[in-house]
Amino acid sequence: MTGILFDDRSADRREQDADGGFAVPDMSTVAVMRRIVRDHVVPRLKLVLLTVLAMTFAAAGTGALPFLMQFAADEIFIAKNEAFLLGLPPVIIVVMVARSWAEYFARVSQGYLSNRIVADLRSQLFEKLAFADVQWLQSTHSGRFVSVFMNDVTTINTAASQTITAVVQNFMQVVFLCGAMIWMDWRLALITLAALPLGGWFVRRQKSRARQSVTSALQEVGALGTIVSETLKSIRVVKAYHRESHETNRARHIIERTLRHMMETVRTRAASGPITEALGGVGIAAAIFYGGWQGISGNVTLGHFMGFMTAALLVYQPVKALASLHNQLIEGTVAAARVFAILDQDQRVTEVADARPLVLAGGALRFEGVTFGYEPDQPVLKNFDLDIPAGTRVALIGASGAGKSTVINLILRFFDPQQGRVLIDGQDVRTATIASVRLASALLTQEPVLFDDTIKANIRYGSEDASDEAVVAAAQAAAAHDFIMGLPNGYESRVGEAGQLLSGGQKQRIAFARAMLRSAPILLLDEPTSALDGEAEARIQEALETLLEDRTVIVIAHRLSTIRKADLICVMDGGVIAELGSHDQLVASGGLYARMMAGQGHSGPGGAMVLVDDVAVARAAVARADDRIRAAQA
Ligand SMILES: Nc1ncnc2c1ncn2[C@@H]1O[C@H](COP(=O)(O)OP(=O)(O)OP(=O)(O)O)[C@@H](O)[C@H]1O
Description:
By secondary structure, this protein is α/β, with parallel strands linked by helices. It has helices at 11-16, 29-41, 45-78, 82-131, 134-139, 142-184, 186-193, 196-233, 235-240, 244-296, 302-343, 404-411, 434-439, 455-460, 468-477, 481-485, 504-517, 534-548, 560-565, 583-589, 592-597, 615-633; strands at 365-372, 381-388, 393-398, 419-424, 427-428, 441-444, 522-525, 552-556, 568-573, 576-581, 603-604, 607-608. It has 22 helices and 12 strands. The strands form 3 sheets. Strands 6-7-8-3-9-10 form a 6-stranded mixed sheet, sandwiched between helices. Strands 2-1-4-5 form a 4-stranded antiparallel sheet, covered by helices on one side. The site of adenosine-5'-triphosphate has 12 residues, from α12. Residues 1, 138, 374, 380, 398, 400-406 line the site of adenosine-5'-triphosphate (ATP). InterPro entries: AAA+_ATPase, ABC1_TM_dom, ABC1_TM_sf, ABC_transporter-like_ATP-bd, ABC_transporter-like_CS, P-loop_NTPase, Type_1_exporter. Belongs to the ABC transporter superfamily.
């Protein structure tokens, strides 16, 4: 169940499937913007309005500058008005200070808004992932999720923080400055601004190019995330097989492709600069010519001309900024569409409207005519019937791929069968609340799962109300207490990422204590003692026997000793039950089980079943692998 495999698709296959095996629906920029406004801006409308007001004020301050220039020229230099000269500086100072405070407020509130959007999106994404269907999570690359959290959301943040205020601010500046120009001389204004529609057309033309390059770049970053997490998770195998260079090359290809797409984005963004600059140059040249000619003819004053030219020179800066913000907006909306695709993912395993918590008795289990396949047209279980009275210990055995883990997946309702029902204490799991179905069982996997937290928190995982005494009692029962007390911080010691500061056996004992603490009537085990040494196994075996008492136990068994102890042995073959009975009954019947026990094994469609009856054999294999790793590292 825990072998390490790599997603080693060819470069072409990666290109086709670059989004982590997950399609992003094509949402238009407008649709994405509408959703962001609806979900994130409207709920904070007051703050947004205040921000816009502050921006408008700051823009109006800029719009007032040409008039000040005009008055200054006409009143001071031409009319020689001394009172005006004395009064003007304080007015300028007040206007500028008020304008800069308004700008400060606008920037801070904009920063809050964009970071708030990011925080909300990250929380929603995490909740979505935590509650998502196992099937969907397994079929989507983890790198895709990591990159959405880290990269896509950051792209949205950058876009939001740079565009929310900047678009409004620059737009308002354009409006005020154009207004000032039209007010001063509408003919001159028309000449100066004639080039603007051409710039608008150019920016629109760039849109699809920008969308394409941003989408590809974000996809590649997702692929990079996948390869980084995959390589780190599998580092022992990577080194043991001397594949460091191979993995580095795989990463390098993706990094180079990302660079190409990023450069395409950069070029598209940068292109808007020279174009608007050139158009601005044409407009201003025309204005100087026409305005100068009017001046020579005596139709305009020097102040009038200077005021107008100030506005004309100022207006092209925000226009240029708007063009580049348009690209930023596209980057943000492409990233947002990828986030929304995850948030909108439909859930297949859902609760019915009138779902009720399971009423648990002893944890009796029943499979009634269950047909299930991960792909609906490829059934893994076929019309599967199994009745397990409360308190029975069942060993599931069969060839690899026979469907043993699938049985456990259905009891936990990670998936729903296409036909038939799974019942716990007589109640269909589909009519019960999902939480109560999951709480009915404790799961122990072959590879223990620990979180980067303290030992105490790991044991208490899923039983948060348990007292410290109960935690210690569970650890004692799991033969973990002594080694925990030997650690410098005892129960407060941290276990490291995925428990890597502990040995395999120690990790398993912690996981075992966690299961002990949980008072679930059903225990689902994937032969969890295989990582323990002889002495610890003997101690834990005793504890395990206590834990198993009065519980319904389903164990995917690999060891003869475990199989022998089961009340019922269920031999699975090709998605059906080939044989069912106690060890003695099955041996006596002389069928498949008897042949397995005779050491002949069985080659079914999924491969051979392996019985591990000798811990020493397994330990020797692990020691050989470790020697190889040490040799490779040396
Ligand atoms: N998430 C999944 N998506 C698609 N197919 C799956 C998935 N999980 C398992 N399968 C397929 O379903 C079949 C049964 O798998 P299952 O894990 O139940 O077998 P198993 O008997 O537990 O095997 P093993 O002993 O090797 O762990 C296999 O053919 C496997 O390839």
